[in-house]
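re: ur question from earlier - yeah i can do the single chain one, its not a big deal. heres the input i used so u can compare w yours
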Amino acid sequence: MTQGAEFGPGRRALLGAAVLGASGAALGLSGTASAASPARSGRGHGGPAYRHLPVPTVVAHRGASGYRPEHTLGSYQLALDMGAHVIEQDLVPTKDGHLVCRHENDITGTTDVAAHPEFASRKATKKVDGAELTGWFTEDFTLAELKTLRAKERIPAVRQENTLYDGRWQIPTFEEVLRWAEQEGRRRGRPVWLHVETKHPSYFRGLGLGLEEPLARLLRTYGRHKKDSTTFLQSFEPSSMQRMAKLVAGPRVVLLGGRTDRPWDFVQSGDPRTVADLITPEGLKWISGFAQGIGPTLDLVIPRDAAGRLGKPTTLVRDAHAKGLVLHPYTMRNENSFLPADFRRGTDPAAYGDAFGAFKTYFATGIDGIFSDNADTALLAAADFRA
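and the output i got, formated as tokens:
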């Protein structure tokens, strides 16, 4: 799709209020203002802090990654200005043990590292969680070296307009994000919620770069280690959340992929269970022993058929709630290529489909929140659903 077509009337209508004011009143008083108010969440006044988030909770997936290169301070800031309830970070380590925000340790597609001849010799082929990858990896760079790189759009063929911002931001450290959140919280008079994922924790522990201990130290330094912390912790490896449970008291979430997937820590330890086992009542009870929520792929909530159309919802929401777990499924995106076939419009995979219709269908299952690349769309859909 051409850049002009991407900024057609529909897209401008969604973005308009978000880019007009950086104060946070991004989508209008009737939408975001009510969505951001805990009093409208439908929760009681007792219990842990996460129970007071608005429902459905909108988690900005890697920030406002539908509009800015993901995991940059620009992406996080825009998501917060739009009114997102929670901002997500994925953490990987540097060679010298700093935690930085990247979706993957392979930074080939999200930075300009390939354009740096001084790092040409760092290109390598590695196996990460059983997958062979060739590129440049954060664990082979010091933080000072990573800071010479600039972030860029990960999927430019789908999000051409995001490439306008290529080169604008560095890779942020998690400590920089914590400082940003602290500053924004003071400015807004309310805490900024974060949703923090440990990426490939077993792989990095095997390299002597364990994620959990340095993460816990940072959380303690910035007062985000307590039971009522405004920070979710998450991982696709349950053992990482078990480890974090011994280090800090904040809410923890186990991420769940496809039904046949096995968490990598299970593969390494010889645990035969798959995700299908973990979403049974017995599996959910086990998760509830060390976590407060699950982050399932949306297909575990409503499966798709061979044509990509939605089928009948599963019992996962009911079963998880019965074990006291909240559900924040992932990931809603506005583009046709990511939507269920029921909600695609036209044949251009990069064009927007009926995202509002998809949100309504998923919210109707009773999920507590949702990850979205387009926080403005998600917030409007959540306001519509509550109304």
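The CA atoms of residues 204 and 210 lie 5 Å apart. not sure if urs matches, ping me
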